[in-house]
Write a structure and sequence with these properties.
The chain has 163 residues and is of the alpha+beta class. It is built from 4 helices and 8 strands; from the N terminus they run H-E-E-E-H-H-E-E-E-H-E-E.
């Protein structure tokens, strides 16, 4: 269920301290994808996230019945995150606003990130990652393209065809 814009603004107004940034990051579980919105606060030793909401807009069945894109949870996260950032005069960080990707860095790790070689979203993939350097969305696109170009065989990272 998606929280309303007003509910998110009320939660942000009650933060225990001034934020240095707001971030929105995708996370997936057995119920599907959702977007975590958090305020980044300082705690004297570094940074900590203060959870504001986990936005889930209907489960992954949407992928199969043609409802997605757009991802309504991402649209709400982007709009509210930008509004919060403006109100508090801090940055808003949402490295993958157009599609789910859990290989993106958090705001505190953004400088360690590197761009997807196809779409440019910021990545910080965990090891092992067989599609390192490209987001999962673009990896699937590459597999589809390779399958079309190989007469039905899928070509993986090292170029060997597999049935």
């Amino acid at each position: 269920m998606l929280l309303s814009r007003e509910e998110l603004l009320v939660k942000a107004a009650a933060l225990p301290g001034p934020p240095v940034a707001f971030e929105a990051l995708w996370d997936g579980d057995t119920d599907g994808w959702g977007v975590e919105i958090a305020a980044v606060l300082t705690d004297g030793e570094g940074y900590r996230n203060h959870h504001l909401a986990f936005l889930r807009g209907g489960g992954d069945i949407r992928l199969f019945n043609g409802q997605v894109p757009p991802w309504p949870e991402a649209k709400l996260a982007a709009a509210v995150g930008a509004e919060l950032a403006g109100r508090f005069q801090v940055p808003f960080f949402f490295p993958s606003p157009d599609h789910p990707e859990d290989g993106c860095p958090a705001w505190v790790d953004r400088e360690r990130g590197y761009p997807c070689r196809r779409c440019g979203i910021l990545l910080l993939q965990r090891d092992p990652c067989p599609w390192r350097g490209v987001c999962y969305h673009c990896h699937l696109e590459e597999e589809r393209e390779n399958k079309k170009g190989s007469g039905g065989q899928v070509r993986f990272c090292k170029g060997e065809p597999r049935a």
